Amino acid sequence: GNRNFEGRVSPDVQANYLASPPLVVAHALAGTVTKDLTTDPLGEGSDGKPVYLRDIWPTSAEIQEFIEKNVTRELFARKYADVFKGDAYWQKVKAP
Q: How far apart are CA 49 and CA 80, in angstroms?
């Protein structure tokens, strides 16, 4: 079903938002979805100083480094070798 309607999870839900898992965690740390995560702190560190999303979000360079170290041609080929095969139900579909 479509995730974009009120009451999907509970009839008591009157508003909903779609967000990536990292942003869900960021808003959970902030304790609200009403903060502007680009300018408002998520909270305070143990030293009492504000902690911003930019302080904990990986940089493009860090993401690229992770990909280069961990995403290999072999891993990709193994993971997606049967991407078009489908599951048992899909394989039972008759097609010309």
A: 45
HEC string for 23-88 = HHHHHHHHCCCCCCCCCCCCEECCCCCEECHHHHCCCHHHHHHHHHHHCCHHHHHHHHCCCCCCCH
Give residue-wise pLDDT tens across range 25-78.
999 999 999 999 999 999 999 999 999 999 999 999 999 999 999 999 999 899
Burial degree of 23 (CB within 10 A; 0-12, 13-18, 19+): middle
